[in-house]
Amino acid sequence: MGKPRPSAPTISEVAAAAGVGRATAARTLGGYGYVSAEMRDRVLAAADALGYRTNQLARSVSTGVSHTIGVVVADISNPFFGGVALGISEVASARGFDALVLSTAEHLEEEINAVNVLVDKRVDGIILSSAACAADSTAHLQLPNEQGIPLVLLDRLIPGLDLDAVVIDNRAAARHATTELIAAGHSRIGFIWGPPVPDRIEYRRELVEAAGRNLWSDGERLTGYLDALDDAAIPLDLDHIMLGEKTEMRAYEAVTRMLALDAAPTAFFCTETDALTGTLHALRDAGLAIPSQVSIVGFDDSSWAAVMNPPLTMVRQPMLELGRQAAELLLRRIDSGAGDAEPPMQRELETEFIERESVAPAPTHR
Amino acid sequence: MGKPRPSAPTISEVAAAAGVGRATAARTLGGYGYVSAEMRDRVLAAADALGYRTNQLARSVSTGVSHTIGVVVADISNPFFGGVALGISEVASARGFDALVLSTAEHLEEEINAVNVLVDKRVDGIILSSAACAADSTAHLQLPNEQGIPLVLLDRLIPGLDLDAVVIDNRAAARHATTELIAAGHSRIGFIWGPPVPDRIEYRRELVEAAGRNLWSDGERLTGYLDALDDAAIPLDLDHIMLGEKTEMRAYEAVTRMLALDAAPTAFFCTETDALTGTLHALRDAGLAIPSQVSIVGFDDSSWAAVMNPPLTMVRQPMLELGRQAAELLLRRIDSGAGDAEPPMQRELETEFIERESVAPAPTHR
């Protein structure tokens, strides 16, 4: 056997040798974007010394790739989407792509407009977290693919629409969190928040239908909660499901109302940050101690949750990883070009249950 | 006197009459972007009924305005910039403009690239929160104006650069917060965080110089802290100023080190969210109770701060308003076009000191 052939140097190796960031190396070697003269010289000298050959990047340039991707999120002020956007930017930037982010404030009409803007701006691909519910028109989600622009759904699937997607396993996450509360002895568990329907719901079937008409991710979390109750043969109490507008203030009101019930919840599972802070306000105003009088589990771990008194038990979503994997999948589709015959793929990432100190056995009376 | 001439109907009035959002009305009347056939009919009928004349918007279209603005932020995963971006999007969307957001991870090279990308994409204007420090090159901040693309600085001034800007009065905010701690009886007040210089600092002059070489907003907050000490004739203790990398972990380490001093701080003023959560971790691990043993004031109010135990006293920045005013200033420049001879203007918004329960008199011994 002869001497093993050394593997081709990567952009990362060139960047490290030049002492510059990967994005700078990628831009220099790809011949696009801004790089200062000094940085360019350092990168080219390092590439030369390592024997780097511009292959894939050069090919991208020659096929007219614009090196921008579009990102459409439902709410840019939500730290969840901020973390996701950061993960996307990291991966895009390391490949020399810029990410243009648009926020739709959960309005479908804004989302349709955002897709049109990005197609007009000739981005190379789109990552989109859709506000569309099952009943909405989704023609705008198929438009980019028809024009040769790959699109990856992020965080939210659209039932019945077969597109590339990276999401988390919301149902398993909610089932796990609820099961932990049941294991601690709770059977009356408030669910904040349920589907945003204005009316009172009388039957489980109605609840499931209402959830199915709304956001996929919210519906999955409710289904996971119901799974856990079913597993433990605990009957559903519809008074323990928050309905209506999804705001911190409405969560406060719903929890306050639930606490006044004869069969008041002894624990709360809060599926969003605003749902959680609204619940915490209500528990404080009711003078209830966590976890001795009431237990609580949140969703969307933040650095705040760990410094609360007591530190809060949370479901942590892999925000950065969600963004990174969506960007990797999109860049792979962009690299493959129009000849890409691989069918759409849907990746489901696991969440992590972070056990801290906000769950305790249910009080025997309150 | 004759009958007063009725004022011309606004887009908002047309939108209200049509029962649609302002963005939809603006797009319909401006003749750009996506509007469904049904919405378009409703808007046009309402415009007709009210006698609306498309003047300004029609003029924009005829002069080749693309109805997109670029937004460059230092860190999209920071909720502060998320709130700012939301404020910008609201105002832009109500005028029928789409906001494209790019994040630079506080890297100047990424910022220069982002400006180039936005100029390439022919946006109508740029709002930018710069990572540039006093010593950095700022040619890229002048480039858009030279090409007839207005640029508004947001949150961070660049000393010596005369550009439109909307910022907060960081110095007054920090002076106020520190003065409140002094009024409660504290004279040993930890400042988390100071300039990110790696070396130990021996003299006040060195500290001020180091701050002057770094981010304007950070330097202003330090200056406000020093103002308050000077006002009360309290000598500066350099051991109470955190230096080094600005991360939650480094804040934790700095506070832990300060608590071991003979003259340990009895209070902490934390100028960023990560500085605050790092400090809270350190206080918890040291077993110190807030506020009976140590007082704390944070910066950047979040919904979490109000549900902490105890609720935290905070400096609230007007994030949404910062974004809104920057967008309004930018749109005014875009409307005025190339003939705009008005000199650059800098607006400084006030912060709010939110008194809660994390400040108490200094303990007589600890």
TrEMBL record, chains A, B:
Q: What is this protein called?
A: LacI family DNA-binding transcriptional regulator
The protein's UniProt keywords, in alphabetical order, are:
DNA-binding, Transcription, Transcription regulation
* Species of the source: Leucobacter manosquensis
Note one Pfam family from the annotation.
LacI
Q: Which PANTHER family match?
A: HTH-TYPE TRANSCRIPTIONAL REGULATOR GALS, LACI-RELATED TRANSCRIPTIONAL REPRESSOR
Q: Which SUPFAM superfamilies match?
A: lambda repressor-like DNA-binding domains (SSF47413), Periplasmic binding protein-like I (SSF53822)
Stretches assigned to the HTH lacI-type domain:
9-63
Return the Gene3D superfamilies for the record: 3.40.50.2300, lambda repressor-like DNA-binding domains
Keyword DNA damage attributed: no
What GO annotations for molecular function exist for this entry?
Answer: DNA binding
